[in-house]
Amino acid sequence: MRKKIVAGNWKMYKNLAETEMFLVDLKKQVFPENVVVMIAPSFTNLNQAFKSLREHPVTVVAQNMHQNNEGAFTGEISANMLKSVGVNTVVLGHSERRAYFKESSAILAEKVNTALENEMTVIFCIGEELDDRKKGSHFELIKAQLSEGLFHVSNDAWENIIIAYEPVWAIGTGETASPEQAQEMHKFIRKTVAENYPEEIANKVSILYGGSVKPDNASEIFGQADVDGGLIGGASLQVDSFMKIVNSF
Ligand code: PEP
Question: Residue 211: CB within 6 Å of ligand 1?
Answer without folding.
Answer: yes
